[in-house]
Amino acid sequence: MKAAIALFASFCLLLLLFSWFNLVDWIGHVLSSRLLILGTILPSLLILLRKQLAKKPVISAPSQQVIKAKTVSIGSFLLLLLLYGHLMSQFGVAPFTSFVFEYLLLLPLLLLLLPRYLSFMSKRQTEPVDEYARLGFCLLRQQPFYLVEHKALLLKSLVKLLFIPIMLGALFDITEQLLLFNWSLHPLALVKGLFFFGLAFDLIIASIGYVFASKLLDNDVKSTDATLSGWLVCMICYPPLLIIYQWFARQTDDYLWHDWLSMDHPLYWFWAFIITLSWLTYWLSTASFGWYFSNLTWRKLIDVGPYKYSKHPAYIAKNIYWWLHTVPFYGVSNHYELLRNLAGLTFVSSIYYLRAKTEERHLMQFPEYQAYARHIASQGALARLKKLLLPNKVSQS
């Protein structure tokens, strides 16, 4: 949580500086967006790197063959990342276009620096011939390839391949919108501005988790869900499968909660507060991961922030937000439209219920998570609510 607080402080400070000095007008919103992202991440990254280097002195001198094998392995991934992003952008899948343009400019520098980085990191490894080196030897045809030996690396690399373009592309787009946003004291403008603000920081945390996963930073992936059901219910929430999700979730009207409630309605401010609280809870849940965020993987136990009270606070908050934001009962002209709206949101909630269950199935193989799950079952927010509302029933059980 300390890492998230440091990132948040940098993010807020930079936003204030951009506003005070009108930097967006001077250098443009695109460059301002990239400087905002880098300025938020770099200070915390350097502090974390210094801390980890103190724990990991030079202990070995890996051969050039090992460095070459790792370079081939990770270099191939970097090229596949460009190929996948370009393919998706050609189909018009957002936000891949924003990612591909930036990544194409950066890729030559990454490939140039890659051998030096790998040499620097490998000197601090107790076993320099790691999973990347072994895959590299296979790609160089120096060893036979057996899928079972490389499955773990391929799975966690696939997670990065699928999510890095989505997260970074969306981050570029939303930070540009945030910097161009015209703030005002109108309630809807404030809610929209705060939404951009929270979403931008949420995407910074998510992007960090995928881009900077590394043994050197001690936030590498330790396990990846290997089940088809786990991958399917997760990936349907993201491009390119998102189109299926959106088709089922689509409402028959475009009315939102503020079309239903006017500002002078006594329920307006309560509704606005609950909606705001829901996505604040969601973003705080993401922030709780710090440098460890990722879908479909296990890195370490997160039991701080909202996760201190619930195993799935982000999913709960998301669903509360969608039901209250879309008000499925408003704007319908007949029972069919009402049922269609309710069915769409029920589909959304069902997907996230299945995501929660498949994630638990994967994580329950780790003793830390088993103990955490037992603690939440007895001391979590829902358990406490049951004790409060049904004290006799709870005591009997």
UniProtKB/TrEMBL annotation:
Keywords assigned by UniProt, alphabetized: Membrane, Transmembrane, Transmembrane helix
Q: Which organism is it from?
A: Alkalimonas amylolytica
Give the residue spans that cross the bilayer.
31-49, 69-87, 93-114, 153-174, 194-213, 225-248, 268-293
Protein name in the entry: Isoprenylcysteine carboxyl methyltransferase (ICMT) family protein
